[in-house]
């Protein structure tokens, strides 16, 4: 069901405010970041995104409040490394709000992947496959601790075939980067044969814990009104790291294991 045109205008306003704030902030660092001294007119893809949202009657999946939670982080951290699970009506917006940064999208639906890339070929996106199904969610939640390769102290992703929650066969660009911001708004999770977001949630936490660079990892999870998202978020992303909640969006800020407190034992041996 489409939202009224007024909703489009408010979301477009958020896009415009955030994107042009980022562009203007880049110019203040012209000595150390010469690449970003360009004005908005030098960013044709950003301009295309702005026109798209200003003229479309189809709005992003998230509400203005939910988008604003992520926008607040991107205002501080962009240009950054931003990993987004899912392509959608909001992909151009996330791309634009991280202008000058690295934004990578992962999409499981091959038809939707082709549709979005045909309309926006400048997006960096990859079609990926998942090993999980929603019908397995309860079993995966009960059994993951029995698989030693899922354990937090040894958790890794690339090539980890034994842990079904580990996204083991993603494009190398995912493994080769440390992601400042991760948005989980896919894969599908509303019917039994869908992949569900169990592995995306687990893998996002593994990436955040393994971070070597400065700063924490901001992780956003959408659709937390659903049982699987909420259950797996509390198991792996942890209530203690939740710093925001707006509508159906939860915001976590996860420090790497090297900076986690050991007041209640070795942090490397537990997720939460």
Walk me through what this model shows.
This protein is an alpha/beta fold and 272 residues long. The protein has one domain (5-269): Rossmann fold (3-Layer(aba) Sandwich), CATH 3.40.50. Helices cover 37% and strands 13% of the residues. The chain is built from nine helices and seven strands. Helix 1 runs parallel beside helix 3. The protein is globular, with a radius of gyration of 19 Å. It starts with a helix and ends in an 18-residue tail after the last strand. 39% of the residues are buried.
In short:
With 272 residues, the chain is α/β, with parallel strands linked by helices. It has helices spanning 5-27, 44-55, 64-77, 91-97, 110-119, 137-143, 172-175, 198-209, 227-237; strands at 81-85, 102-107, 124-127, 181-184, 217-222, 242-246, 249-254. One of its GO terms (cellular component) is Golgi membrane.
Strand fraction band?
5-15%
CATH architecture: 3-Layer(aba) Sandwich
Secondary-structure-based class equals: alpha/beta
Q: How many β-strand stretches?
A: 7
Strand order of the largest sheet: 3-2-1-4-5-7-6
The quaternary organization reads as single chain
Helix amount: 25-40%
- Tell me, what is the CATH class? Alpha Beta
From the spread of the alpha carbons, the general shape counts as: globular
- How is the biggest beta sheet arranged? 7 strands, mixed
Uncertain stretches: 1-10, 20-42
Index terms:
single chain; 272 residues; alpha/beta; Rossmann fold; seven-stranded mixed beta sheet; Polysaccharide biosynthesis domain-containing protein; transmembrane helix; membrane
């Amino acid at each position: 069901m489409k939202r009224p045109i007024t909703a489009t205008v408010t979301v477009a306003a958020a896009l415009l405010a955030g994107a042009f704030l980022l562009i203007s902030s880049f110019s203040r660092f012209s000595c150390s970041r010469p690449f970003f001294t360009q004005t908005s007119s030098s960013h044709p893809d950003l301009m295309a995104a702005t026109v798209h949202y200003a003229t479309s009657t189809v709005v992003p999946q998230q509400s203005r409040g939910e988008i604003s939670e992520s926008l607040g982080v991107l205002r501080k951290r962009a240009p950054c490394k931003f990993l987004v699970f899912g392509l959608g009506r909001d992909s151009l917006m996330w791309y634009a709000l991280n202008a000058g940064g690295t934004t990578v999208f992962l999409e499981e639906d091959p038809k939707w992947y082709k549709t979005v890339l045909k309309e926006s070929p400048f997006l960096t996106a990859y079609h990926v496959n998942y090993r999980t199904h929603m019908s397995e969610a309860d079993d995966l939640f009960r059994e993951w601790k029995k698989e030693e390769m899922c354990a937090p102290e040894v958790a890794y992703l690339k090539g980890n075939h034994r842990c079904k929650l580990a996204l083991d066969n993603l494009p190398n660009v995912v493994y080769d980067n440390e992601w400042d911001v991760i948005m989980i708004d896919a894969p599908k999770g509303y019917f039994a044969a869908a992949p569900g977001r169990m592995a995306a949630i687990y893998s996002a936490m593994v990436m955040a814990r393994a971070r070597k660079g400065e700063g924490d990892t901001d992780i956003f999870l959408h659709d937390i009104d659903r049982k699987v998202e909420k259950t797996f978020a509390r198991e792996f992303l942890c209530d203690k790291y939740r710093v925001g909640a707006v509508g159906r969006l939860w915001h976590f800020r996860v420090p790497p294991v090297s900076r986690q407190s050991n007041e209640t034992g070795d942090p490397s041996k537990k997720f939460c």
